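agent: user wants the structure for 24961_t:CDS:1 from Dentiscutata erythropus. delegating to structure tool.
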Amino acid sequence: MTFYIDKYNIFNSINNVYEDEIALGVSYLNLGLYVDSLEQFSCILEINSNNMIALRYEETIQFLNKGLEINPQNKTILTLRAGAYFYLDQYNNAIRDLNKSLEKEHNNATALFLRGQIYYCLNHFHEAFLDFYDALKFEPDNTDMLVLRGEAYLSLEHYYNAFLDFEKALEILPENVFALFYSGKIYFEQEQYGRVLSYSSEALKIEPGFVPILILRGSAYYCLKKYKEALEDFSKALKVEPNNEAVLKYVKDAYNGFNFTSMKNT
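agent: tool returned. relaying tokens verbatim.
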């Protein structure tokens, strides 16, 4: 059985940015006070370097363009605009801005991390790994970076190193759902289904409707010929994503296995 997972990125936490500070920065831009707005946006990043501005991205780019007219080499505004480009899937534009930003500040962990994510989305896993590796030099306990570097290791089939990154992330943040998922996935490849059940069950306590983990645990149950439990997990996943053809196939396979086992036991 195979699995899938939605594109993961640090900006999933975007709604945690301080809205009042963002609104103030936008107000400065609307008033033409571009220097003040740049200072405000820089302040937001200093408060939490893992967050980006939660604005509508097209408007964000327009605002940031005005700032760059005044200060074309401002590394903060270049990184912010790259984040907006990233959300719009304009990867080449994002990489261009990040390259400029990193020319000015090579140890900018946020820019390195974002560029690594873009490389990952483009399936340039080696380049992604290098950026995540460099970013972690500056923020070694950043769990998001650890998970994404672990993903890059997985894509390069460096399973042991991937597992080490996921385990370190879990030491720092035991409820990290993605680290739990990928650790379980590695154990699945090793056919250690008991460990898969342990990791995936822990993850589902935190995110009970997370489809990839439901599929992972259901697949482990299926391989253990526990078809009833597998059917329950796949059915839950199908309720969340009723149009997912892969999940529907899992449900049918588990249902057939469950019926066959039931017939043998009668």
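agent: one observation worth passing along. Residues 174-266 form a domain with the Serine Threonine Protein Phosphatase 5, Tetratricopeptide repeat fold (CATH 1.25.40.10).
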